[in-house]
Amino acid sequence: MAEITLPAPSGRPDLLVIAGEHSGDAHAARMVAAAKAKQPDLNVCALGGVELERAGAQLLFDLTEHSVVGLFEVLKNYGFFKDLFEKTVAWIREHQPKAVCFVDYPGFNLRLAKRLCDEGLAVKGGGDIKLLYYISPQIWAWKTGRRFKMAQYLDDLAVIFPFEVECYQDTDLPVTFVGHPFVEEDATLPLRFDPDGPVLLLPGSRQTPVRRILPLMLNGLRALRQSGDVRPAAVVYPDERIHALEKDILAPVRGGLGELSLVGQQEPLTASAVLTSSGTMSLQVALAGVPGAIVYRANPLTYLIGRRVVKIEYLGIANILLERPAWPEFLQGAATPQALAGQVSDCLNNGQRAQQAQADAQALRDMLGEQAEQSPEDWLLGNLTV
Fold this sequence. Notes:
Blueprint (H helix, E strand, L loop, with lengths): L14 E5 L2 H17 L5 E5 L1 H5 L3 E5 L8 H6 L1 H18 L3 E5 L2 H13 L11 E5 L11 H8 L2 E4 L4 H4 L7 E3 L13 E3 L5 E4 L4 H20 L6 E5 L2 H11 L9 E5 L4 E3 L1 E4 L3 H9 L3 E5 L3 H10 L7 H6 L6 E3 L5 H13 L1 H18 L7 H10 L1
Parallel strand pairs: 1-2, 1-4, 2-3, 4-5, 5-6, 6-7, 8-12, 9-10, 9-13, 10-11, 13-14, 14-15
Helix pairs in contact: 1-15, 8-9, 8-13
């Protein structure tokens, strides 16, 4: 792997944004673009992805290209992340941004927040750099004790679920609900339900999960074809890197899959049913009211450890919010071809399934549409001017 080099900024940066996931990159980009619209001379640097770069941030390093999930995946890439971590600390020490805004990605970001305090760079360590956090780690699902460390190191937190404010009430960390980005129509996947549309497969945006999940979805599609359903299907990709990976996975196994295409995530999409990974896409699917199921497979040991520490019943955010498996979850060995084919067939042939998905979508929008205390950009700019 090539040596990591973080370029110098053009002038002292007002803000360094760190977003390690595609979804975090997109959400942070909307916040930065709106902030720069109000304050055009805002100097923003980022460890993130192309969305932040398009929003006007100077992209120091594309962190989204190296997104991994799971204990063993992180351990395999330990040398890379250690090098990046030290280079990031050195960059912050040299260039002294007024604030660092962490976006989710807690494994990296909270360690960095601690280090900046330990070195006396951050406000709560006696320095001048404010530490902000946008999009809370899911402490309501696991590692609930993180909130006390967050309060120890961070200066302010913006959350996207209204119930998250209460999760921090026993700390002195200021917490602001800034609304969920998916409630705004143009922030969601361009997807709508169409009973005559194709079946969509959405395996995710990280390479390792896509390698594990897409073959399961394709096996389910093949079983559906064998049952006599010939409806067109499409595999969705978020970027060219995942597009290339999906083509490689499809090349040797196209037999028996019928009419199947690859489509970009930014294109207008319709779907009669979906098989989706458990990440951000699953919530976007739910908000679009498309019936379907969640498919996920992790490293077996990662999954075993995760089941011991996660305190919630469901993996999909929509299911967690609705407190029931509105989009049934097929995890690990449960994701058999017959089970997935059965789910898709039910979505295609059971009109009540589609009606319920539409009702659940409205319930989710009502839940997430609670009036925000501030917009993300006003929260950000307020912290940079105080």
